[in-house]
Request: fold
Amino acid sequence: MSLCWATAGKGFDDLFIEMGQVVKSERFERSTEQENVLNNNHSFTARNLIRILALALIVLTALAAFAVEDADLEFTGGIGVIPVTGVAANGTVNLNVVRGVSPGGPWRIAALTAEVQSNGHIKVTGRGLLLASGNGIGTNAGQTVHASLFCGAANAATEFDSIGVPLEANGDFRIDDHLSSTLTFPCVSPVLLIRNAVGVWFAAGIPSLELEKHRY
Reply:
């Protein structure tokens, strides 16, 4: 066997050297493959982490926006003005004065919703606010209306007003505005009146009990 190796020009030492190099090469290749796998795993994990963080940021942003837009005060339903609450024994007519505001003639309203944020942003949607008496009955009487929010006890309420908007022919109207002065929350004993340019009230909003129920 020594003769064969000698004839081939290689001895045992050379063979062992070559075998060692092969083993080292295989180990290096395995190590490189394992490192590549680890790098790929790390890269995949990093990409997933970035996606999760991005998704979490989107969700938090949406929740924050929702929180900002969430109404602090709501009114659902409307009451048309009834100008007179009664007549005294001496014949004196008792007008339906609310928070110091005199009533208009009889008006009816089909529907009303309103939302008020603590920053003073108010949205009001009214349907079918129409005159309910006289020769102009069933018309909008060419009126312009605005919203007045009162906070506090009846004898010491603070008033906040919106801009005025004209009634549509069918009595519909929309108000999207910021109230005239800085609003203080909570708004105690809230009253929302829909008034004309002269200042008399045509309709009132009904405070939403559902909002109060969820708040406490």
User: Anything to note?
Assistant: Residues 1-8, 64-69 have pLDDT under 50 and may be disordered. The chain is about 35% helix and 30% strand. The longest strand covers residues 73-80. Helices lie at 2-8, 12-69, 209-215.
